[in-house]
Amino acid sequence: MTTTTVPATTVAVEYVDGLRTRVLEPGRHRVPRRATHVSVSLLERLVTIAPQEVLTADGVSVRVTAAVRWTVGDPVAFLETTSDPDGAVHLAVQLALREALLDVEADAVVRRARTGLGDALLAAARGAGASVGIDVRAVAVKDVILPADLRAAYAELVTTRARGQARLEAARAETAALRSLANGAKLLDDHPALARQRLVEAVPYGSTITVSTGTTD
Length: 217
Fold this sequence. Notes:
Blueprint: E1 2-6, E2 10-16, E3 19-24, E4 27-31, E5 35-41, E6 45-48, E7 52-55, E8 61-72, H1 75-80, H2 85-100, H3 106-115, H4 118-130, E9 134-145, H5 148-190, H6 192-202
Antiparallel strand pairs: 1-4, 2-3, 2-5, 6-8, 7-8, 8-9
């Protein structure tokens, strides 16, 4: 017998003469001299899936990128089920993206991808992960990239809406100003003394004012 130490945040799967015997937790262990050990990290991992080309309901090809947060849940299944366990999760997420956006038109893809796909993608990833020893914690859509011409069209649409809103606000402000002027003019017509007072206030300092009463002797 000899000893081996398993570091923290890892486990070691032990094999003796090619046969799996046990899983060693972090710490120091006595092990057979013929044993070999394969370490498996239990640290959480965040992996970004390569951009996926997805065809929308109206025939527009968009690129969608997702991120998966996962850790190893079953070290034995992680080592012995497939040579690429995280690849199985990635494939499940990619297929789920294709299916989820199949009936969505391009103008709704951005909103739907970020807010309406979380549960579907997480369920697909967890189903695939469980079979290969992976515990999927979360799946999130990071980026949705529209074709360049469509992005330009949407940008122009947003700009046009903003300009129209600005013109509408300017018209409202002008209408309010005119209404205020009209009310002020009516007030001065109804109160001549107030009109003369405003006139005196408007004349520069030091000027001479001659007031005509409108009558002759």
